[in-house]
Specification:
This protein has eight helices and no strands. The chain is mainly α and 250 residues long. It has one domain.
Length: 250
C-alpha cells in the first residue's frame, strides 16, 4: 500500500536521480524568484495588515484580545501562505506539468495519454491553473470573511488548515491527471472517492511548503509523488465518461 509519506519520499529520490534532475532546475529557480519577491513584500506590510485587523475587533471583545491577536496572526500567515502558493504554481505550472510527464514515463515505463506538443502543453497548463483559481478563490474568500467574524474566527485556523490540505492535493495531483486527459471536475470526483489518501497527501505537502527555502527543493518531489499517487490510487477510479455513465457537468 502506497501511503502519502512513502510517495513523497520515493518521489523526492526519483526527481533527483540522474535521468530526471535536469528537469527540476527551472521550477526551483522560478520558485526562488517568486519566494524572494513575496517575502520582501510581506515583511514590509505584515504589521499594517495585522493592525488593521485588530482595529476591527469590537470594544466588547477587548477582554479576549489575548486570544484573538494570535488567531489573527495565524489566519493572516495562512492567507499569505495561500497567496504565495497560488502565485508560485501559476508561474511554475508549465514546468511542473512537464516534470510530471517525465516522471510518469520513468516510473511506469509508459508515457501519459497526453499527446500535445511542448508549447501547447505549457499554454494549456496556464489555462488549467486559471480553472483552479476559479475554484479556489471563492472558497478562500469565504474563509477570509469567516476569519473577520468575531467568535466564528476562533475556528478559522482549523478551517484554513483543512482547506490547505485539500487545495494542495488538488494543486499537485492535477498535474498527472491533466497529463492523462482527466477533466478538472472528474479529478475532484476522484479525489473525493479516495478522500483519505487525498487529505493525507495534501497535509504532507502543506507541511513541506512551510519549510523555508528547503521547500523549494522538496516541492518537485511532491510533483513526482503526485504521479505515484495517481498510479496507485486514482487511475483505477471509474471515469465520469466511462461506458454506460453519462458525463457530468464541470
Amino acid at each position: 500500500m502506497l501511503d502519502a509519506f512513502t510517495a513523497l519520499t520515493r518521489g523526492t529520490r526519483l526527481v533527483y536521480s540522474r535521468g530526471l534532475r535536469r528537469f527540476v532546475f527551472l521550477p526551483i529557480v522560478v520558485n526562488l524568484l517568486v519566494y524572494a519577491a513575496m517575502l520582501w513584500y510581506v515583511l514590509g506590510h505584515f504589521g499594517g495588515w495585522l493592525d488593521g485587523w485588530m482595529a476591527m475587533v469590537p470594544a466588547w471583545l477587548d477582554w479576549l484580545s489575548w486570544l484573538i491577536w494570535p488567531l489573527f496572526v495565524l489566519s493572516l500567515v495562512l492567507i499569505v501562505f495561500f497567496t504565495f502558493t497560488l502565485v508560485t504554481h501559476l508561474v511554475a505550472a508549465p514546468f511542473y506539468g512537464f516534470l510530471a510527464a517525465r516522471v510518469e514515463q520513468e516510473a511506469t515505463s509508459r508515457p501519459p495519454l497526453d499527446d500535445r506538443g511542448l508549447v501547447k502543453t505549457a499554454v494549456d497548463a496556464l489555462g488549467r491553473e486559471l480553472v483552479k483559481l476559479a475554484y479556489i478563490l471563492p472558497r478562500m474568500a469565504l474563509l477570509l470573511v469567516l476569519s473577520w467574524i468575531p467568535v466564528v474566527n476562533l475556528v478559522a485556523p482549523l478551517l484554513w488548515a483543512a482547506f490547505s490540505a485539500w487545495i494542495m492535493a488538488i494543486t499537485y495531483l492535477d498535474y498527472p491527471m491533466d497529463n492523462n486527459k482527466v477533466s478538472f471536475a472528474d479529478m475532484r470526483r476522484r479525489l473525493k472517492a479516495r478522500w483519505w489518501p487525498t487529505l493525507t497527501y495534501g497535509g504532507w505537502v502543506t507541511l513541506i511548503t512551510w519549510i523555508p527555502l528547503a521547500n523549494l527543493f522538496l516541492l518537485p518531489g511532491a510533483v513526482a509523488a503526485a504521479v505515484l499517487m495517481w498510479e496507485r490510487h486514482y487511475r483505477g477510479v471509474e471515469s465520469d465518461t466511462a461506458p454506460g455513465r453519462p458525463p457530468q457537468a464541470g
